[in-house]
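User: Sequence recovery, please. Input:
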């Protein structure tokens, strides 16, 4: 990936408690980004559908990527639920074969068929499928060469391993097949001439290879200059580079995920693919007020006040306990400062940004609905 020369996180400096530089711990740093209708209790976005017009009203294909471990699959599932709210029909697709969506929706493993996995608020439906390159190739052969997906020829190709061989030897072909299925779902029309799906959400590969995965015209250039493969890739790129597509990046307020997000945006822009929003996952509100954060980082917390607070809570206040609390407060202040630097670096991308809290427990279906509400309230869907 292309690298950005500037350093995302600087080494935190010690700031005196009475310094004017304590403004980095101003009140605005203490809460997650509020919903556009106002803040909610505890600094969390309002859990309401607050906006009539989302930030991406004309987008039909939402591609969700992010560094591994940033929760991109959870965000993709939550976004699909948010988009389906109010009676809409949304398709959620995965292409890596990890069955992460099936685990989140607590359903049997997904196959190469569109299956309803959830009902969204207001009666909308979320369908899901796992796009397998072998099945996608058979679809391709059926579309362009009228080869039956279940006929003798198809079974022979499977048995000989010819399909796996073709997609392994020519990895660009594999990406054409996977993205081609996504594009087909975006442009598909129903019997009444309307779009089969109001939106399609793709749980895509991580940021480290997202530009190469989506920029299939470059990959195919070495495979075919003319013919069905070239036509397929051109059709896919027409959708991916249009205003119907937005590529959203998930991240955490940590050094490596933030830097990879910045690099990912630069690489996507370089190949002229449309960048959407940035979803900052795992937000943890600071536990101390601004003045205490500055003092904790500077090492000037009032030890006597800490001991007095422990005694008022009917707890013993030995020196070693006070030392431990002072040390933990200092570590916490450093983390908050680093997160704020990361937030500032992401803000410099000038992209719509959405924040989701760190969940206390493992993500389940109920969590997805809650996160979907938050994305909706912040205007992402």
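Assistant: Recovered sequence (381 residues):
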């Amino acid at each position: 990936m292309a690298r950005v020369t500037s350093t995302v996180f600087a080494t935190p400096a010690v700031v005196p408690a009475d310094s004017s530089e304590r403004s980095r711990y101003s009140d605005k740093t203490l809460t997650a980004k509020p919903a556009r209708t106002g803040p909610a209790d505890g600094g969390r976005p309002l859990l309401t559908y607050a906006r009539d017009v989302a930030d991406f009203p004309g987008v039909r294909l939402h591609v969700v990527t992010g560094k591994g471990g940033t929760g991109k699959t959870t965000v993709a599932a939550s976004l699909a639920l948010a988009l389906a709210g109010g009676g809409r029909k949304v398709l959620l697709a995965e292409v890596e074969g990890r069955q992460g969506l099936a685990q989140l929706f607590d359903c049997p493993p997904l196959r190469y068929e569109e299956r309803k996995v959830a009902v969204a608020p207001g009666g909308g439906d979320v369908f899901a499928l796992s796009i397998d390159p072998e099945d996608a190739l058979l679809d391709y052969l059926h579309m362009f060469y009228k080869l039956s997906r279940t006929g003798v020829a198809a079974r022979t190709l499977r048995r000989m391993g010819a399909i796996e061989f073709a997609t392994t030897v020519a990895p660009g072909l594999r990406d054409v097949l996977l993205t081609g299925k996504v594009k087909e779902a975006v442009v598909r029309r129903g019997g009444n001439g309307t779009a089969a799906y109001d939106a399609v959400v793709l749980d895509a590969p991580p940021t480290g290879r997202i530009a190469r995965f989506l920029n299939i015209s470059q990959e195919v250039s070495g495979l075919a200059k003319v013919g069905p493969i070239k036509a397929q890739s051109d059709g896919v790129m027409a959708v991916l580079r249009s205003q119907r597509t937005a590529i959203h990046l998930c991240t955490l307020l940590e050094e490596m995920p933030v830097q990879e997000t910045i690099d990912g945006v630069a690489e996507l822009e370089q190949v002229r693919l449309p960048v959407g929003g940035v979803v900052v996952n795992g937000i943890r509100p600071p536990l101390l007020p601004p003045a205490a954060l500055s003092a904790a980082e500077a090492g000037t917390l009032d030890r006597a006040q800490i001991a007095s607070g422990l005694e008022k809570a009917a707890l013993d206040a030995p020196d070693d306990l006070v030392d431990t609390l002072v040390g933990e407060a200092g570590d916490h202040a450093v983390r908050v400062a680093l997160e704020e630097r990361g937030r500032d670096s992401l803000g410099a991308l000038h992209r719509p940004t959405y924040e989701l809290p760190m969940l206390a427990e493992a993500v389940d279906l109920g969590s997805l609905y809650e996160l979907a509400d938050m994305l909706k309230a912040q205007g992402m869907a």
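Confidence is low (pLDDT under 50) at residues 1-52.
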